[in-house]
Amino acid sequence: MIQSPKTLEFLIPSYKRPQSFVRAIESVASQIDRLDLAYRVKITAVDDRSPNIDIAETIEAIAPFSQFVSVRQNDKNKGMSLNIRDMVAESVADFCTVLTDDDMLQQDSLKEIIETIDSLDEEQRTVGSFFVPRYSYLEDGTLHCIVCNPFSEDTRISAGTLNSLRYLENGFILTGLFFNPKLVNFKIWDKHIENSFFPVIYFADLLLNYESLFINKNWFVHVVNNECHWDSWGKTEQQRTLRLYNDYLKAVALSSEQALSRESRIGLNLALLKQEFICYKRQMNTSLPWLANGNRNVEKSMLLRVSYLLAVIYYSLSRFKLLIRYG
Predict the structure, then answer these.
(1) Shared domain check, 181 and 307
(2) Per-residue pLDDT tens digits for 84-118
(3) Closest CA to 11 of 95, 73, 98, 71
(4) Exposure string (b/e) for 45-65, b if CB count within 10 Å is 16 or more?
(5) CA-atom Rg of the chain in angstroms
(6) CB 222 within 8 A of CB 174
(7) Are residue 156 and residue 292 in the same domain, yes or no?
(8) Sheet of 134-137: strands edge to edge?
(9) Are both 28 and 70 inside the same structural domain?
(10) Under a CB-based contact definition with an 8 Å cutoff, are residues 119 and 104 in contact?
(11) Range of 116's domain?
(12) Are 186 and 72 members of one domain?
């Protein structure tokens, strides 16, 4: 029996970036058109009620690609998380990916992406997601850094509690993470809709239940150190950094609780707690030195979480030693 080819949808949310919004759309649409893939690749672009955008101008700009590109504007501003959440919920594709409005698809990347999706059919395995490293560039085109590259070669990540915590941080990339929208846990996303690290939360949940693939390819141009419109996360850069810092720790704590609820083995629980602490430590080492001493006001709940975590690790390790000694 011949199966229909798997479909792909690019979700492009936008806010206050009319020029790069069109550029992001065109970077994908031109490749769909050139490769004649309109029958299986679509683009949905949604502006989150930007005050400086005439959506009619955007629609006119991408008119040549209207067969496979849908552009609209929200009636009111939803915020980043809810806007993307609704786009994912509406997707009927086999896989979707979020392309932020200041990023672009690298030339000739779409062919490789489709080949990757097609290879999943051959294996007859449930892969919930796949992702690539994030190559970050300055606005002048200079390569700034490469992150979200946990392996030096293509690697399959098996589903499970420990891998969920071990690789969840790679979810924050947004651009470069592909996933099956039908497998997303919208209940947990809705409950934590205000968390700025919502991609970490839903990616960790996907890793609990489904395999993921790391593809060591440079498929996207991710622009950094440019103007960002994150006013709702704080009026100053320091306030926004503190918000991101707290939200990341909360996302890790939530994902750890989800993983621990599925395990009863002491050894694995200890490994999960250790991995949770590693996630905290990694973020603390990155963010705390930048924040001024007077503003290291990490919420009390998170300080209590870390203290509790250390106590549980100590207790579990002691219990584990007793089990080994006395059987």
Answers:
(1) no
(2) 999 999 999 999 999 999 999 999 999 999 999 99
(3) 98
(4) bbbbebeebebeebbebbeeb
(5) 21
(6) no
(7) no
(8) 104-105, 220-223, 134-137, 143-147
(9) yes
(10) no
(11) 8-223
(12) yes
* Residues making up the chain, counted from first to last: 327
Taking CA atoms, 70 is separated from 10, 58, 67, 73, 113, in Å, by: 10, 11, 8, 10, 21
Concatenated DSSP letters of 112-180: HHHHHHHHHHHHT--EEEEE--EEEE-TTS-EEEEES---SS-EEE--SHHHHHHHGGGGGG-TTEEE-
Last residue within a domain, chosen from 182, 202, 223: 223
SS (H, E, C) 254-289: HHHHHHHCCCCCHHHHHHHHHHHHHHHHHHHHHHCC
Give 294's pLDDT tier (boundaries 50, 70, 90).
very low
In this structure, which amino acid lies at residue 256? S
pTM of the model: 0.89
Q: Distances from the Cα of 104 to the Cαs of 111, 220, 226, 236, in angstroms?
A: 15, 6, 14, 27
Is 84 within 8 Å of 186 (Cβ atoms)?
no
> Would 228 be classed as within a structural domain?
no
Pairing of strands 211-214, 127-131: parallel
The per-residue pLDDT for range 12-61, each reduced to its tens digit, is 999 999 999 999 999 999 999 999 999 999 999 999 999 978 999 999 99
Tell me: pLDDT of 301 over 90: no
- Token couple for 253: 């704590």
Residues 67-77: tens digit of each pLDDT: 999 999 999 99
Instruction: Tell me how many domains the chain contains.
Output: 2
Do 189 and 283 fall into the same domain? no
- Give the pairing type, strands 104-105 and 134-137: unpaired
Q: Which residues, 6+ apart, have CB-to-CB distance to 117 below 8 Å? A: 6, 8, 94, 95, 178
**Closest Cα partner for 134 from 177, 165, 101, 178?**
177
Last residue of a domain, one of 223, 252, 275: 223
Q: At 220, which amino acid appears?
A: F
